[in-house]
Automatic annotation (TrEMBL):
Keywords: DNA-binding, Phosphoprotein, Transcription, Transcription regulation, Two-component regulatory system
A Pfam family the protein falls into: Trans_reg_C
Residue numbers bearing the 4-aspartylphosphate modification: 54
CDD domains registered for this protein in UniProt: REC_OmpR, trans_reg_C
Residue range(s) of DNA binding per entry: 132-231
Official protein name in the record: Response regulator transcription factor
Keyword Transcription in annotation: yes
Response regulatory domain span: 5-118
Domain OmpR/PhoB-type, residue spans: 132-231
Record's keyword annotation contains Transcription regulation: yes
Length: 231
């Protein structure tokens, strides 16, 4: 059975070592990177199951590393940052992170979030693998096994969360999902800021799909209720 490897990227050695200590206690392997460039090199050289990234790192910041990772990989990413505002958290999630933990942090809470993300990622992959239903609607084609999307033959680059939201909505045409329900199913947890987070993801998803200029929009807003797929 393959062991789980966690990437810990933080330029503060004491924090990285503290996280590594608790990761090791959980039975996981780990790789420590002290800057963003080393973090991305680790992802390229090793089989990483989850990444814990500080945002403010030398060479490349956490946002840049996430963008590079998301071009090739879908593993869970947890941001660890001293930035504590709601806007910072939402920005981090929109950038492609799966969770956001603020400093100072409780190591046990961080490990609980690591376990939750690994569990959700495994369940999601098993669910998609079991279904493997290609969805086609109005020029849009969603390939769940490759986690790829094309619109009128042109590939659309989506973050993992954008893909998950689109696939969820498209799997149940006309069904209305509330923002809270979308967050619970895609992120796998209840979250107080779920409405704003989902709204921002829907906005960027629509932009990538060219919904701003489209007459017949694929993603419909049901005011006061939520969102549905109009395929």
């Amino acid at each position: 059975m393959k062991s789980i490897t966690i990437l810990i990227a933080d330029d503060e050695a004491e924090i990285a070592e503290l996280i590594a200590l608790h990761v090791k206690k959980e039975g996981y392997d780990y790789i420590i990177a002290s800057d963003g460039k080393a973090a991305f090199q680790a992802v390229q050289a090793h089989s990483i199951d989850l990444a814990i990234l500080d945002i403010m790192m030398p060479e490349l910041n956490g946002y840049d590393v996430t963008r590079l990772i998301r071009e090739q990989h879908n593993m869970p990413i947890i941001f660890l940052s001293a930035k504590t505002s709601d806007l910072d958290k939402i920005s981090g999630l929109v950038m492609g992170a799966d969770d956001y933990v603020t400093k100072p942090f409780n190591p046990m809470e961080l490990i609980a979030r690591v376990n939750a993300q690994l569990r959700r990622y495994k369940q999601l992959n098993q669910s998609i693998a079991a279904d493997k239903k290609v969805i086609e609607a109005g020029g849009l084609v969603i390939y769940p096994d490759q986690r790829a999307v094309s619109l009128y033959g042109e590939t659309i680059e989506l973050t993992p969360k954008e893909f998950d939201i689109l696939y969820l909505l498209a799997s149940y045409p006309k069904k209305v999902f509330s923002a809270e329900n979308i967050f619970q199913q895609v992120w796998g947890e209840a979250y107080l800021d779920s409405s704003n987070t989902v709204m921002v993801h829907i906005r960027t998803l629509r932009k990538k799909l060219g919904e701003e200029k489209a007459k017949n929009k694929l993603i419909k807003t049901v005011w006061g209720v939520g969102y549905s797929f109009n395929g």
